[in-house]
Amino acid sequence: MEKRVWMICTTHMFVEVYLYIQVAIIPVVVREFGLGLFEASLIATVPSIAGLLMNIPSGFLADRLSTNQLLFTSMIIEGVAALVVSQTNSFWMLVIGVSFMKAGSPIYHVAGLSQISRIVKPQQLSRSVGVHNAMGSLGSTAGLISLTIFLLTTGWRWTYLAWSFPILVWGIILLISSQLKLKQIRVRADPSQKKLSQLRFVLSPALLIFLAVIGIREIGATGFSTFTTTYFVNVRNLSDTTSSLIFAIGPAMGIIGSLLGGYLAERHGANKALSWVILSCSLLLGGLSLMTSVYLLALFYLVYAFVNNALWSPMNTILARITPESDRGLGYSFYFFTEGLMDSFSPTLAASVIVLSSVWGIFPFTLSLFIVSLIVLQFLPRFERREIGNVVSEHVSK
Predict the structure, then answer these.
(1) Which of 305, 334, 171 is nearest to 247 (CA)?
(2) Architecture of the 3-182+190-397 domain
(3) Distance between CA atoms of 301 and 270, rounded to whole angstroms?
(4) Radius of gyration of the chain (CA)
(5) Spatial distance between the Cα atoms of 225 and 221, rounded to a whole number of angstroms
(6) Mind listing the pLDDT tens digit for each residue in 326-356?
(7) Per-residue pLDDT at 44
(8) Are 341 and 52 in contact (CB under 8 A)?
(9) What is the number of alpha carbons within 13 Å of residue 46 lying toward its C-beta?
């Protein structure tokens, strides 16, 4: 891959360092700050709302600023917010700090992914996105492993402090680098034709069905990941350190899983690959819910994490194919807005399910949503084929 693609992927690694830390420390902060389950869910809900609100301006900025400026901005926001979190003794300051970190994520993702989709050749897109997501999993793994180490030594706050400095340094490197001084490609066209293009392609039936699949699945996946460590600690009686360690190895499995997703999407098609992944995740979650042995519990969770991370490549490949190149930044904004919207209320919804039943209730909650998303996905191919054909024919005519 090109050097500039590797720089984007490395930025993704730093963006995802803190991705799972805030949910991994939920059992710890519950005891430290004397919280209830609904209060604890705010550490996932409020940051998700912040990320959601940033998706719209991120799409606007992606078409007006260069890639290195946007990636620099995301790194500075994340690094400074991490410094604030590392020094706080207030739960609400923790929530505010994590919210700022989450707000920086859409700035990166809209700019980074839309630029990758333009830099690489179409036949190499799935593979490149697979590497991109593998680097994100590497960052998540590194963050969680460092959390496990600091929980055993100096405390969870040091995780935020230790990573803030390399993140800030990388942001400066991005700003001064000439490799990413690129602006998003905008196709000049008649305003009426441009408006028609956006209506036909950006808000096409294919995109709407795709967003429905993503949204439904995301509710279940986010609800499960938010309370995974809570399930390990409260139901399976694992220690904070053991549950954090198991949780940390999950993203490590995602490194290989992301590459697998790129291979499957490239070899068998993105739609088939995505269907297989969602179905496999459903079966693995069903098995995980029945495990009582810590070893089998860890095994099923790690295989689930491996397969679950394979979905990002086919998802991004589908999105790139059903949105026109000239408005791909806008397409990614819709994509991440949908994810952020579902992420914003999923933890509270999952907490309600747990309160009404038990922590184990998170499994039927997640499974039912996975199955519904899989059913909706089956309606996508006929629209995807038609829209791809339209995009290709319009591109050729120009």
Answers:
(1) 305
(2) Up-down Bundle (1.20)
(3) 24
(4) 20
(5) 6
(6) 666 677 778 878 887 887 778 888 888 888 8
(7) 75
(8) yes
(9) 18
List C-alpha distances in Å: 362 to 72, 93, 212, 342: 38, 28, 21, 16
Does residue 327 sit in helix, strand or coil?
helix
The whole-angstrom separation of Cα 212 and Cα 218 is 10
Structure tokens at 91: 């739960």
- How many whole angstroms separate alpha carbon 277 and alpha carbon 269? 12
Residue 311 to residue 316: CA distance in whole angstroms: 9
Quote the pTM value. 0.68
**Per-residue tokens: 225:** 């990941």
Distance CA 309, CA 278 (A): 10
231 half-sphere exposure, CB direction, 13 A CA radius:
26
| Largest Cα–Cα separation, the chain | 64
Residue 143 near residue 16, CB atoms below 8 Å: yes
Mind listing the pLDDT tens digit for each residue in 121-167? 777 777 787 788 888 888 988 998 898 899 888 889 999 999 999 99
User: Which one, of 302, 279, 278, 300, lies nearest residue 291 by Cα?
Assistant: 300
Q: How far apart are CA 158 and CA 146, in angstroms?
A: 9
Contact between 180 and 67 under an 8 Å Cβ cutoff? The reply is: yes
